[in-house]
Design goal:
mainly beta; five-stranded mixed sheet; single chain; Ubiquitin-like (UB roll); globular
């Protein structure tokens, strides 16, 4: 689901690009936040709480809350709510604090 038209805001969309999330090919728009592209593709759970493992979704959208930490192109702890989508990115759900390989 995406907002296509808004009475006040305008949306400048980049070109459509393909990326991979947990091994599944998806499409989004270049330059939009990764979390927005995931949400548009039906992904609602971005991480789980560290202690009780409860699901965490798209929350603050400004990089403050740490509810959206994922591994992007092999780099853990990327805040996908503020990281811009690029062609061919490999995005993976991160368990716990992440692991540098």
């Amino acid at each position: 689901m995406r907002i296509e038209k808004h009475p006040i805001l305008t949306f400048e969309r980049g070109r459509e690009v393909e990326f991979t999330f947990n091994g599944k090919k998806m499409k989004g728009f270049e330059g939009e936040p990764i979390a927005a592209a995931l949400h548009a593709n039906g992904v609602r759970v971005l991480s789980h709480s560290k202690k009780l493992h409860r699901p965490r979704g798209f929350y603050c959208a400004i990089g403050n809350c740490s509810s959206c930490l994922m591994t992007v192109n092999g780099e853990p702890n990327v805040r996908v709510c503020v990281e811009k989508l690029k062609e061919g990115m490999v995005i993976e759900t991160q368990e716990g604090r992440g692991d540098l390989k």
